[in-house]
C-alpha cells in the first residue's frame, strides 16, 4: 500500500501549534514590556537564556533515541531495551529541570536584591522554560511511534493556556499566579503524554532501574553521543551566546530587549520551519530505510516549499510595517533599529534552509556530518563574539556578522544533505533501518 506523503491532521495541528508558538512568543514580549521595568524584563530574558542552555546537557541524546525508536517501530519490535533508555532520559531531564529551577530560586533569594516572591517568580519561570527539554524528548518519542497527532493536540492545549495566562497578566493577574498555573498545566500535559507513550511501549511503566538504563544507553551509543553531542552543543551555543555577549557589551535594559525581540522573530521562524519538517519526517525516514531516493527528495522539497510560505508572509509583514509592529510590541521599553529588518529577513531564509537540511541529516542519523558543521559554525561564532567584545562592535553590526556566519552554515548543511542522505537513498535495495554515521 502506498504511503501518504503527509498526514493531513498532523499538518493542520503542527502548523497551528507552530504559529501559536510564534504568536505567544511575541505576546510574551508585549506583556513583559508593558508590565515590567526594562531592567526586570531583561533579567527574565537572561533567566530564559540560562534555562534554554540546559539543552547543552542533551548532547543530542534525544535524536539518537529517535533513530533507535523509529527503527524499532518500523520493524514492529516491542523489546524493553530502547524503551528503558527513553524512560531514563525523560526522567533525567525532568529532574534536571527541577533542580535548575530550585537553584535559580535560591540564587535569586540569597545573592541578589530580589524579594522571596520575586525569586519564586524567577525560579518558576526557569522551570517553565526548562521543562521544554522534557517536552522536546516526548515530541521526538511521539513522532518515532507515529503518535504525533496526540502530541500536537496536547501542544495546542498548552499553547492556548499560555496565551490566556499572558492576556490575564496584562489585565491584572499577578505574575506569580500565572507562573504557578502554567507549570501546573505543564505537569498535566506531560502526564497525559507519558501515559500514552507507555501504552505504545515507547516508555516503560516503571522507573526502577533508572540509572542502569541511563548507563546502558550511554555505553551503547558512545560514538553517536560524541558526534550528536558536538552538534547539539554547537546549536545551543549558536542560538544562546548572543544573550550573554550583548549584556556584556551594553548592559541590561534596551539592548537585550532588542536582541530578544529580534530572536523571537528569528527563532519563531525556526519553530514554524521545524514544525513543517516534523510533518515530513515519517515519510523521509521510511523512504531512506527503503532506499527510495526520489521520494526522499520530493518529501524534502515539499518541506522547503511549505516553509517558504510562512517565511514569505513574515518577510512581507516586516518590509511593510516592521517599525509599527516593534513599536507596538515594545512600547517605551526599547526602540528597534530599522537596520534590523533586512537582517531578520536574511536570517529567516537562511534558517529555512538550515532547518530543512538538518532535519534530514539528524533524523537519518548523520550525526558526524552535522557535528562537523556545528563545530565550524560554533568556532566562527565564538570568534565573532570575542571580536565584538574586543572592538565594542555596535548591536546592528554584530547582528549583521551573525547573519553572515549563519548563511554559510546553511550552505554547508545543504551540501552535506546532498552528499549524505540523498546519495545513500539512491543506492538501490531496501534496508530495514536508518543509517547512523
Q: Would you summarize the structure shown here?
A:
The chain is built from 16 helices and no strands. The protein is an all-alpha fold.
Describe this structure in words.
There is one protein chain. The chain has helices at 8-35, 38-53, 61-74, 80-111, 116-130, 132-144, 148-170, 175-199, 210-220, 222-240, 242-250, 254-289, 293-330, 340-363, 367-391, 395-425. 82% of the residues lie in helices and 0% in strands. The chain contains 16 helices and no strands. The longest helix has 38 residues, at 293-330. It is mainly alpha-helical.
Key words describing this protein structure:
437 residues; mainly alpha; 16 helices; 0% strand; globular
Sequence-ordered SSE layout with sheet pairings:
Blueprint: H1 8-35, H2 38-53, H3 61-74, H4 80-111, H5 116-130, H6 132-144, H7 148-170, H8 175-199, H9 210-220, H10 222-240, H11 242-250, H12 254-289, H13 293-330, H14 340-363, H15 367-391, H16 395-425
Helix pairs in contact: 1-7, 1-12, 2-5, 2-12, 3-4, 3-6, 4-5, 4-6, 4-9, 5-8, 6-8, 7-8, 10-15, 11-12, 12-13, 12-14, 12-16, 13-14, 13-16, 14-16, 15-16
